[in-house]
Amino acid sequence: VRIPDGDWIADDRSGLTLCDATSAAFAMPLPWAKLDVATYSWQKVLGGEAQHGMLILSPRAVERLLTYRPPWPLPKIFRLVSGGTLSEGVFRGDTINTPSMLAVEDALDGLRWAADSGGLAGLIGRAERNLELVAAWVERTPWVEFLARVPSTRSCTSICLRLEDGLGGDPSGRRGPALVARMVELLAAERVAYDIASYRDAPPGLRLRGGATVEAADLEALLPWLEWAYETDGAGGL
Ligand SMILES: Cc1ncc(COP(=O)(O)O)c(C=O)c1O
Known about the structure:
Elements: E1 18-20, E2 37-41, E3 53-57, H1 59-67, E4 81-82, E5 85-86, H2 101-116, H3 119-140, E6 144-146, E7 158-163, H4 175-189, E8 205-209, H5 216-236
Parallel strand pairs: 1-2
Antiparallel strand pairs: 2-3, 4-5, 6-7, 7-8
Helix pairs in contact: 3-5, 4-5
Bound molecules: pyridoxal-5'-phosphate (PLP).
C-alpha cells in the first residue's frame, strides 16, 4: 500500500517521523522535508544486492541522537553517537565489520543505470507506467481487482491484486487460495513467472513487481499468461 503524500505530517512537529521507504525510494516521490528517518534497500527499485540497509537522517533526527540518552544499553552496531558527537564516519564508509564490496559496486552500477534512465523522474515514470498497464488490465478483467481500493494508495512497485471473493461460484471464497496456488504452479512450470502469489497474510491474490527495473513490455507479456493460468485452472476443475 502506498501512502499518497506527507501533507498530514505537521511541519512544526516535535516528534520524529520514521519512514520505511524500502519499496518507495527511487519509484515514488518522497516528501523529504516531512521525513526525519528514512530507510531503503538496494535490492528494491534499483535492483541491486540485498544486505545493506540505507539510513537517511534529517538534522532533527541527528539533534535527537545527540540529546537523547537511551536508558538501556545499545548494541555497538546501532550506536550512531560517540563521545557526544555523531559518528559521521559510518555515513562516509567507515565500517565496524566487513560489508560486501561487490554489493557496493552493484549499487553504484544501479545508480549509473538510474542516471541513464532519466534519473528519479525517469524511474518514477517507469514504475508508474507499469502500474498503469496492470490497472488497465484489471479494469477489463472481471476476476481480479486491486487489493487497495483507493487508487492513490496503490503501490507502483509491489502491485497487489486480489482475486474476487467467491469467483467460480463458491461464495465462501474458499476456492481463492487453492486457485492462486494452482495459477502460481502453472506459471512457474511454464517458466513465465515465479513467486507471484500474494503476501502470506494477505487475501488470496497475486503480487506483481512493478519497480523501475521491470520492463513494461515484460509486464505486458505476462498479462495474457495470467488469463491463461486462470482459465486453465477453471478447466482443471479445482
Ligand atoms: C516496506 C518494506 N519494508 C521492509 C522490507 C524488508 O527489506 P529488507 O529485506 O531489505 O530488510 C521490504 C521488503 O520487501 C519492504 O517492502
